[in-house]
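Data availability (excerpt). The following record was deposited with the supplementary files.
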Amino acid sequence: MDRLARVGDSSHKPANGEFESTNQRYRNAVADALRRALGDLEARDRLLLMYYYYDEMTLREIGLLFNVHEATISRWLSKVQKRARKMVEKSLARDHGFNRREVSEAIEMAGEHLDINVREYLYDARGSDRKADPATESAGGAAAPR
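Predicted structure:
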């Protein structure tokens, strides 16, 4: 997925031990916030992300699946990316007590160094959709376009 952010204040250079502690705190918080955000996305939005980023389908190919123009898929993806980022930022602030600077630093670090398996989060959330909606299972897990 695209980098979550490219902002941050690098003027504060913590000591090595403090850096590792902060790094671990950021890693855990971003992973948790991202898992929650992806889980809270609608099934169609997660499907779009999986098709585009993990199945490496083109906008045109995804558009054919949903019977919409590729420009529509592009708009949908852009909205999903923005929504997911806002959800991650809110979770970092609300659930982990991060201030604005820490949110920016954590997201920057995630974009550069974090080894989060986003695909796993998307598939886990998709599995919970199937448990919640047995009709999805008979439809092969594909979500109908809106």
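Summary of structural features: Residues 8 and 101 are 7 Å apart (CA to CA).
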